[in-house]
Amino acid sequence: MENLNQLLAIRRQKLQKLKELEIDPYPNRSKRSHKIKNLWENKDKFVESEQKTVITGRLTGMRRQGKVGFGNISDESGRIQIFVRKDNVGEDNYEVFKLLDLGDFVQVEGNCFITKMGEYSIRAKEVTILGKSLRPLPTVKEKEVDGKKQRFDEFSDIELRYRKRYLDLLLNPESRDNFIIRARIIREIRNFLNSRDFIEVETPILQPLYGGAHARPFTTHHNTLDIDLYLRIALELYHKRLIVGGFERVFEIGKNFRNEGMDRTHNPEFSMVELYQAYADYNDMMDITEDMILHIAKEVFGSEKINFHGTEILLKKPWQRTSMLDLIKEETGFDASDFDFEKIKVFCDEHKIEIPPAAGPGKLIEEIFGRFVESKLIQPTFVIDFPKEVSPLAKEKPGNPELTERFELFINGNEYGNAFTELNDPLDQRERLEAQAKLRELGDAEANVVDEDFLEALEYGMPPTGGLGIGIDRLVMLFTGNTSIKEVIFFPQMKPEM
RNA sequence: GGGGGUGUAACUCAGCGGUAGAGUAUCUGCCUUUUAAGCAGAGAGUCGACGGUUCAAAUCCGUCCACCCUCACCA
Questions:
Q1: Of A490, A492, A496, residue with least CA distance to A263
Q2: Is the CB of A446 under 7 A from strand B?
Q3: What is the tens place of the pLDDT at every residue in A36-66?
Q4: What is the CA A498 to C1' B49 distance in angstroms?
Q5: Which nucleotides in chain B lie closer than 7 A to a protein CB?
Q6: Which tens digits make up the pLDDT trace of A258-285?
Q7: Residue nearest to nucleotide B13 (CA to C1')
Q8: Does residue A483 lie within 7 Å of nucleic acid chain B, judged by its CB?
Q9: Is the CB of A312 under 7 A from strand B?
Q10: In whole angstroms, what is the distance from residue A388 CA to residue A365 CA?
Q11: Among chain A residues 254 through 273, which have CB within 7 angstroms of nucleic chain B?
């Protein structure tokens, strides 16, 4: 056997003792009669009737005093004290009780009562082990001080919390709450879109070509077909095929994978909701974005405001809609609306903005926007009319061949969504993708690739369509007040431990 | 990738050239209404890893690893 430290060895010894007593430490069956929350909800009734109740859960506290002992049992719904007295459970069962450790799963049969100290508890008739824990759970004790819970020990090491999320969830209620809120947000996204007659679809994660965003992919290999496949970087191109196929409103909630840098707002796999609506444009997408986020705010939080570390964010409609060029002008006084490449380059040089290889004026405008404007956009803002150069899937803005009908949503200085009036002209789309392919040759590893299958689909005809993508992780961060994406993803990507 | 920080017992941390510490947890004893239970005692560590300096290194130096912050990059 491996070299076990003292704490692990002691638990294995207890496991052995249970087996010697012919107690199964991992029985197949349990028989819970109530969730702990139910007992609290009908406290008086349970105390008065003294009815038999059976709870199950993890042993999360233990105060033994010789022939009597108190413990805490926690299940998903709550926590309650158990009172175990040798005279009540019998000598044999008390031996079992004495072999229990914090972290063990147990079943307690008994009846509810109020202790001398006034605590609602279960007086045990029998304690059954449901699952022996062989590792010590980090201990977190708390005490109520003026109605506030004061914690005395913590499980707070960030790295451990991410690597052993199960312990984090067990020991840090705030972390658990983040994920409950995440689930509610996703549920409300679904409810909202279902109520608007969108149908939920599933499209390939493994794709022979990737597209729909500007990013490097993960590559994998299918053995039987003997071809390389890519993990999707966006949902876009398959959803458009579905619009070609006659669906008028589709959405998908799922993961995208981008083989790029990681920081506190980027995880290599992240969740998006994308939706496509035929006979709609980017103005409709702005409306739906406002409505959807407002719906979440109201349903999950009952408020039209978010307080993010003291910054009050007002979600009340309508949100500001301003063009990228106007925002740049407001912030810097620089007017780039003539797309004069030389003039814009001079501005970039003056402000030490690096000029990427193969960049045209549109790319530089986007860089300028990123440098000067993004972080200033605290209240929800639709930044509209992106340069065509950086928007190969968006339809040109009527009257200005340099711009597209595209927006990104910014809140609190971060990007939350991206949407276009989708390009449905197959010949224009081909030209744009071919231009992207040229950029690839010039060294832009993130440029789109020409997807002939997608182009062919467009040639059969796609109605005018609006499309929208919203980053779910970031939305959850916004609503839960988290500044790291790792706090809202159960198992964020980490380097393997050596 | 640059800069800064952190890494010591199961957890949270102190120690920062001279025998590895505390609280909680664990174990033993006492305790039949405790709740951060209490009292008495005990055990528990590759001080992130590897090198170097030194009579002596958790401590100083170097390299590496992981994590955090920050800047850059990144649709």
A1: A492
A2: yes
A3: 999 999 999 999 999 999 999 999 999 999 9
A4: 10
A5: 10-13, 23-27, 30-38, 43-45, 65-75
A6: 998 889 999 999 999 999 999 999 999 9
A7: A153
A8: yes
A9: no
A10: 11
A11: 258, 260-261, 263-264, 266
Token pair 């467009």 in the structure block, residue? A458
Nearest-angstrom CA–CA distance, A393 and A400: 16
Residue closest to A469 by CA, chosen among A294, A326, A270: A270
Phi then psi for residue A349, to 5 deg, are: -60, -45
Q: pTM here?
A: 0.95
Angstrom distance (rounded) from CA A366 to CA A488:
29
Closest nt to A352 (CA→C1')? B72
Tokens matching residue A87: 């005279």
Residues 388-427 of A with CB under 7 A from strand B: 390-392, 418
Give the pair of three-digit tokens for residue A45.
């009734």
Check if the beta carbon of residue A492 is closer than 8 Å to that of residue A485.
Answer: yes
Q: What are phi and psi of A341, to 5 degrees?
A: -55, -45
Q: What is the pLDDT of residue A321?
A: 97
On whether the CB atoms of residues A313 and A378 are closer than 8 A, the answer is: yes
ipTM of the complex in this document: 0.93
Contact (CB, 8 A) for A70 and A85: no
